[in-house]
Amino acid sequence: MHIAVFYSRQLVLKLEFEPQLLTVNDLKMLSIPTFAEANHEILQSLADRSDRELVGLHQLHPEQGKFFTALFCRYGAIVHSVVQQAVESQAQADYLFAIAWRQIFAELGRVQLATDLEATNWQSWLMDITGSTIDRVEVPTASHIRSTLAEAPPPLRCYLERGLDAIPPLSRLIVVMTESLKWNEQRISAYLQGEGQKISTGEIPTYLAAGYEQLEAAVPNDIRDIYLHKDL
Fold this sequence. Notes:
This protein is an all-alpha fold. Helix content is 58%, strand content 0%. The protein is globular. The N and C termini lie close together (8 Å). The relative contact order is 0.17.
């Protein structure tokens, strides 16, 4: 799936909110999500790798996303079962789960594990990050949570956000104004001209298409293979 199609489904990278209808199940029945990406051949090829190896490979090869995604698939259920204890609804649990994995992703590149091969400090570290996320994040009410795990799996979200940070500022701004703010071409052009950028309304689609291409190129090839080359 092309990244523009992904965006066209109104996914928001920064976990923005809008009202949604709640059900009795949302309030009382919490479930652990399944991660279909775990069955992808890229991730299956890493099944025999230890946690320590996956962490090390993630740090050595930041241009590849499969190592982080393999860890996510391996420990996603555990992390979700922990965050469930802190909230009242499925939507809130999924929201906090996504925030926790964003924090894990942000810190995983620099974590140092003990040299003792029998040490379980990776799992301890994972639980520490999850616990600190629970303590510091103010979770909105379920009626104000917009994004879902099915629409935006945490590894894909993490690499899209990283890719968005890596593309040129003008491209990033036009993509965000289009997809997150839902501004039309006229409003985007007017804003940019007010900031000294002489870009006409008719030029916005060209800049937007270039922004999508730049963003897609900034996402690791294996992440695109796992998440974007199928119908999410």
